[in-house]
Each structure stands twice: as C-alpha cells, then as structure tokens.
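ESCALATION

Customer reports they have been waiting on this structure for their group meeting. Please prioritize. Original submission:
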Amino acid sequence: MSFPYAGEWLTEDEIRAVLDAVHDAVRSICYQVAEDARRIRAALTTTGQTLLTRQTRRFRLVVKESDHPCWLDEDDENLPVVLDAIVNRGARFSSVEMYLVSECIEHILSSGLACDVLRIPDEPPRRWFDRGVLREVVREARTEILY
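Update from on-call: job pushed to the front of the queue and completed.
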C-alpha cells in the first residue's frame, strides 16, 4: 500500500505508523469475519441431538434436530435477526422433527417437521416449539391408533 502524496505532509515514521494501523485494523476485521463465519457454520450444522422429550404412561414425544434443509437466504426478511442471534447469542438454526412414540409397542405412531427453527441457548422450548406441528402429529397418531 502506498500514499502517493503522503511524503509531502507526513514523515517516513508517520507513514509507517499509519500503514501499521491500517494493517492491524484489516487483520482484526478479517479475524472477526472468520470467527463469525465459524459460528454461523456451526449453528447451521445439524447434530441430530434430542432437544426435548416429554412422556406420559403410554406415549413419548421426542423432538430432535433434523438434517432437513433450512431456507435462509439473502432475500429472507428474518436474515438479520437470525444472524444476530447466531453471532451474538450463540443460537442454532435448523429444522426440528417431532416423533410420537407408543410406549406399549415401541412404535413411532407419527412424526412432523418444523422448518427454520431458531433456538437461543437458555430460552425455554416454548419459545421455539411449534404447537401447530404438534397438533398435526397428535392428529396423525390418533388416526393411526383408530385405524
């Protein structure tokens, strides 16, 4: 990097100091971008972990992270919110599968999928849990039991 007319108003030491400051600032920004990219990649990589389990005497609801693709692109109006939550709050963004299992016969009665779920650490599941998908899963399980 050079300053064509810097010699007219800066000494050699001052030019070197300015270049060092610019170099350090660029290095710091590049490091931060790389760290943010690592966080985003980790937040979008699914692990298949079990997120939630609820059980009654006869049934068990299992909610797991799914590898079903999420649709988050630059046109999405939620993109700034999702990226902020991932970078600044350690959130995860993935699809979530729900399974309703019969405890009597250890058989999956029904399942459902919630896409594009943003989960922020230390927030209760009720913040991200899709009750509409749960209703569909329960309705499908009832049909399976009755027929």
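Sent to customer with the following note: The radius of gyration is 25 Å.
Escalation resolved.
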